[in-house]
Amino acid sequence: MDITDCKIIELPKIVDPRGNLSIIEQLKQIPFEIKRVYWIYDVPGGMDRGEHAYKENQEFIVALSGSFDVVLDDG
Question: Which domain, by its residues, includes 54?
Fold first, then answer.
């Protein structure tokens, strides 16, 4: 797997007047087995997170609130 395999996956959205619902399930919306889940929050604007590398890794990233940039580099 390399950087060309990265893609945006649209999550299902169940619209309801009481509030919308989205579902994420491994091997359905996420095309791999989930081994760990973590949240990053309260990051001040302009700060960087991560800045490290993995030899092999698959991630599914969701912005629960606000927005962020994801920078990918395979070299």
Answer: 7-75
In a domain, 1, yes or no: no
Asked, for residue 2, whether it belongs to a domain, the answer is: no
pLDDT of 53 higher than 80: no
Query: Is 52 an active-site residue?
Result: yes
Examine the pLDDT at 63 and tell me if it is beyond 90: no
The residue annotated as part of the active site, out of 7, 36, 52, 55, is: 52
pLDDT tens digits, one per residue of 22-48: 999 999 999 899 998 888 888 888 888
* Tokens read off for 16: 């309801």
